[in-house]
Design goal:
Belongs to the thioesterase family. This protein has 248 residues and is α/β, with parallel strands linked by helices. Helix content is 29%, strand content 15%.
């Protein structure tokens, strides 16, 4: 019986100083590391851009997806800790915000707390408005996903691609829905920056202040145009803002 070859979780998107700043990006439900491909041109020399590749997509398409946020974070943190000590900025979008947060905790516990944690399009840990979305029938589920704007029209209209993507997206949303922060977790001490896409139908801006509770350090938030997938608009401005967080 053949065995699927498992690949690593973290991909280098640029060649930067291995001992310098590393921006590590965590994609949304159903997303892959290539979602941050456009960021490469906006990263200045010397900075490393890295992206997390969850199982079940991209070059890990043959691997079964993982539906547990803590397990995802454990795999990512283990790979980052095998690198030479560096200056990490973690950026997580939607589901990725929770995986990035859990990764930050693991790095902190290993003595390598990130320079900053940046969270985007996500309610604070343990909160989710629709925990049953991943249980909806296929047609209803797919229509809801397409309405958010994260699926290209050519893919949305392709039934074969839909059938391939649905199990992966359901798994990711199940991970999001079942995630609960660990009781008694010590707050981080690094700055936390929260990005909200104006008009995001999944995230109530009034609840974002709850992210302040995950750190004893500075908490800031900003609103950007573009709705839930604002990360694809004004990329250069966004990357510059991310890099400014926790600057020494």
């Amino acid at each position: 019986m053949s065995r699927i070859r498992e690949r690593g979780w973290v991909r280098s998107m640029t060649t930067g100083d291995p001992l310098g700043v590393r921006v590590v990006c965590f994609p949304h439900s159903g997303g892959s590391g290539i979602a941050f491909g456009a960021w490469s041109a906006a990263v200045p020399p010397g900075v490393s851009l890295m992206a997390v590749q969850y199982p079940g997509r991209g070059d890990r398409f043959g691997e079964p997806p993982v539906d547990d946020v803590a397990a995802m974070a454990g795999c990512v943190a283990a790979e980052l800790l095998r690198l030479p000590p560096g200056d990490h900025i973690l950026f997580g979008h939607s589901l990725g915000a929770l995986v990035a947060y859990e990764t930050a905790l693991l790095l902190r516990d290993a003595g390598e707390e990130p320079r900053a944690l940046c969270v985007s399009a996500a309610l604070p840990p343990g909160r989710m408005n629709n925990r049953s979305i991943h249980l909806a029938p296929d047609d209803e589920f797919w229509t809801t996903l397409c309405a958010l704007g994260g699926i290209e029209p050519a893919i949305a209209e392709n039934a074969e691609l839909r059938d391939l993507l649905l199990p992966v997206i359901r798994s990711d949303l199940r991970a999001h829905a079942t995630y609960r922060p660990r009781p008694g977790t010590r707050p981080l001490s690094c700055p936390v920056r929260c990005y909200h896409g104006e008009g995001d139908p999944l995230v109530e801006q009034a609840q974002l202040a709850g992210w302040a509770g995950v750190t004893s350090g500075d908490f800031t938030e900003t609103v950007r145009p573009g709705g839930h997938f604002h990360v694809t608009a004004g990329v250069a401005e966004l990357v510059a803002d991310v890099l400014s967080q926790g600057r020494k």
